[in-house]
Amino acid sequence: MSNVNLAAFRALPEPLQRACQDLTLMPDPAFSTAAAADTLQAAPEITRTTLNRLQAAHLLEQPEPDQWRMPKPVRTYGHTLLEDVPEAERARIVARIARHYLLWAAGLDRLIAPGRRRVAAVFTWHPETPPAAATAEQALALLHTRAPTLVAAQAQAADAGLHHLAWQYLDALWGYLTRQHNYRAWRKVCRVGDHSAHYLKDPTALALWHSLSGLLGRHCGFFRRALDHHNQTERRVLDAGDTLTQAAAAEHQGATLLRLNQPQKALEVLQRGLALYQAATIPHQRGQALLERQLAIALAKLGEGDQAKEHFRAVETVFGAYDELYLCARLGLDRAQVALDAEDPASALGHLAQAEQRFSGWSDPDRARLLYLSAAAHTLAGDQDTAARARAAAIPLAQQLPRNHPIALLIQTLTNHSPGTTE
Domain 209-323 classified CATH 1.25.40.10? Predict the structure, then answer.
């Protein structure tokens, strides 16, 4: 820190020095007034006064209203001062920061997937607090902007031994990770969640970690690894007596078996999971619909088209009731694939058109899948020009995906005009 800033810091009253010192523990140099207020345990107006005084001393910058940034030399000096602070006190500060970001992310997750079943305690904290966005798309955009901060906050909490907070980021970020497909953040969140869940030996935390890790494995094309996680999920929830999560594990296992081209085995697993949902004391319609979506795909692959259509219709009704346009659109992609497998390009294109009408905020992998299906359908229909345009648009997206990603591998086959099977 420059001599001028150092002199300004030492000229501050002791409470302001301590506030500046505590703020250096923020996981990111940039933070909001609300994050600072929770860290300092102060009311918003008092916090703003504190931050304004630190800015006047050139210890903080304010790039936009209610957003602050601490220069790197100030953070470095603050970390030096924190070496003299007792470890227990530092942990209390880190806990306040971790809770703030955990609660912030949980509020946004409720917007992304309104009907999702959640198990982390954070979702019971201050349920009256409104989320920081108005729509699911706004929530995803905010989480994407703050993803590095949230990942760092989780890691910082685990490093401080706050594993009871760190594992809950698995649940709070579930909707963002599985919808936005931020694989780098997804891996980091699972890595820290692994450490914290195993440290606690908590069956619920372990089951959640295995579930999210299994989904990551399937999305990245590591199907055997994904199956191992699905099986471990089931074992952990049996320990916890959680029937609904056991049913969800069957959904994930069935979906992965379908990717391995084992529809009969997938059907057996999915039917077992459906029975668990139907026998549950408290119904979980959204979870059952997600499972029935995979069940419909398995039935279609086994030639049971009429039964598949019945399940698809039931699933669409549930997704529509929750106003989950993304899931409705994903369902359209699934139905387009089923139509392609049946060599019915007209129906496939109809499903794709409906999916695009319903939803526009596709992630890159989802957009790549849509383009792949479009190219395959137009090729089958004999419209080579439109198919070529879809292929040209899909290839750059595929190049951004992990090497073994199922969609990336499928797009490599587009030059062979093969409809294939999609993730």
Answer: yes
